[in-house]
Amino acid sequence: MSNAPAGWYAEPTNRATLRYWDGQSWTRWICSEQTPGHSVEQFGARLSSLGRNITWILFGSVFLFVSLLLFI
Q: H or E stretch including 33?
């Protein structure tokens, strides 16, 4: 699975559970909740999108904080 991009993938033993692949190895992060009417793949895509948004928000906040410290 080393060629697979980072993201949420269904567990082989329990298709209702997702585990996060960071692009190199499996992480401890799992999610067993699924929105009714949506597939595991759609749910995983939404979780991956949320993770990217949170990453950019944190990056922007740190950048803003460091910029303010430099100009004070």
A: none
Half-sphere exposure of 49 (CA within 13 A, CB side): 6
Three-state DSSP state, 47: helix
Instruction: Quote the DSSP letter at residue 56.
Output: H
Instruction: Give the list of residues 6+ apart from residue 50 with CB closer than 8 angstroms, or none.
Output: none
Give the tens place of pLDDT for each residue, 25-71: 888 888 876 555 555 566 666 666 666 667 777 778 888 888 888 88
Instruction: Provide the edge-to-edge strand list for the sheet that holds 26-31.
Output: 7-10, 18-21, 26-31
Q: How far apart are CA 47 and CA 67, in angstroms?
A: 30
Backbone φ and ψ of 17, nearest 5° = -105, 135
Length of the chain: 72
